[in-house]
Automatic annotation (TrEMBL):
<keyword id="KW-0436">Ligase</keyword>
<feature type="domain" description="DNA ligase D polymerase">
    <location>
        <begin position="30"/>
        <end position="288"/>
    </location>
</feature>
<protein>
    <submittedName>
        <fullName>ATP-dependent DNA ligase</fullName>
    </submittedName>
</protein>
<dbReference type="GO" id="GO:0016874">
    <property type="term" value="F:ligase activity"/>
</dbReference>
<dbReference type="InterPro" id="IPR014145">
    <property type="entry name" value="LigD_pol_dom"/>
</dbReference>
<dbReference type="InterPro" id="IPR052171">
    <property type="entry name" value="NHEJ_LigD"/>
</dbReference>
<dbReference type="Pfam" id="PF21686">
    <property type="entry name" value="LigD_Prim-Pol"/>
</dbReference>
<dbReference type="InterPro" id="IPR033649">
    <property type="entry name" value="MtLigD_Pol-like"/>
</dbReference>
Length: 290
């Protein structure tokens, strides 16, 4: 493949640039491989992005270079890229807006991959066709290990979270963060998701003080797992299932089974690269959200 190429994606034509640029130097993973991954994973990824405004983490000079968050859609976007202008929930005046990209077709995903938007982050709520924000449809517990704790300890905490949710009649599913931790998700119960998640985090911190913390205070976190319930705040986003992460290797936020959670004994049990995730999806389909 030459460094630049014009390609047809369904009924769109895109110009792809710098395809041989290495974005993951330690792994030799190029921009063309990033685009290939997002193209092939699209059938299971796109449903999880549907109607959710996307926040991008862009790495134009690769994972070792400077990166930036991008909420506003790029000015030079193709005219077919759908955007949605929404009030910015973090605005103190309540009148600032953000023009988000809505990733509802493969061509938009390929266009973003060409921008080196390696990471895709989404909120726990969706928007209607005219931009009305809907109530959260997802509940998330972001499990963040404080060294020397790892994803192994996160798995033990994920099992505790699942038990509490199960007692409340709520089904839960899990994915790796693609970084150090993992997330447990459920369909949003008919109550304030942030308060509900906070109550569960505080309860588990009280019941398992040697393993769980529910506050952000760094001093309390070494060797424990922080249950970040605040990800349910409407202003927050969480990495999307099947998104790449900007690590040394092209790891992916990977949906996993509860058997894999229970059987995890070492970190490498739950580290999956792009190729491995494509193989998993081919073998088992989408494990996320049932």
């Amino acid at each position: 493949m030459s460094s630049d190429a014009a390609v047809r994606v369904e009924d769109r034509v895109l110009k792809l640039t710098n395809l041989d640029k290495v974005l993951y130097p330690e792994f030799g993973f190029t921009k063309s491989e990033v685009i290939d991954y997002y193209t092939r994973i699209a059938p299971v990824l796109l449903p999880h992005l549907k109607d959710r405004p996307v926040t991008l983490k862009r790495y134009p000079n690769g994972v070792d270079g400077k990166w930036f968050f991008e909420k506003n859609a790029a000015e030079h976007r193709p005219d077919w890229v759908r955007t949605m202008r929404l009030e910015s929930p973090g605005s103190s005046k309540g009148n600032e807006t953000v023009n988000y990209v809505m990733v509802d077709e493969l061509a938009t995903l390929v266009w973003l991959a060409n921008l080196a938007a390696l990471e895709l982050h989404v909120p726990q709520w969706t928007v209607g066709p005219r931009g009305g924000k809907r109530d959260p449809d997802l509940l998330v517990f972001d499990l963040d290990p404080g060294a020397p704790a790892t994803v192994v300890e996160c798995c033990r905490v994920a099992e505790l979270v699942r038990t509490v949710l199960d007692d409340d009649g709520v089904d839960a599913w899990a994915k790796t963060s693609g970084n150090k931790g993992m997330q447990v998700y459920a369909s949003a119960p008919a109550k304030d998701t942030s308060e509900y998640a906070k109550a569960i985090a505080q309860r588990l911190a009280k019941e398992q003080p040697k393993l769980v913390v529910s506050t952000m205070a760094k001093a309390q976190r070494p060797g424990k797992v922080f249950i970040d319930w605040s990800q349910n705040n409407p202003a927050k986003t969480t990495v999307a299932p099947y998104s790449l992460r900007a690590r040394e290797r092209p790891t992916v936020s990977t949906p996993i089974t509860w058997d894999e959670v229970e059987e995890c004994q070492v970190v490498e049990d739950l580290v999956f690269t792009a190729d491995e995730v494509l193989a998993r999806v081919e073998a088992a389909g989408d494990l996320f959200g049932g």
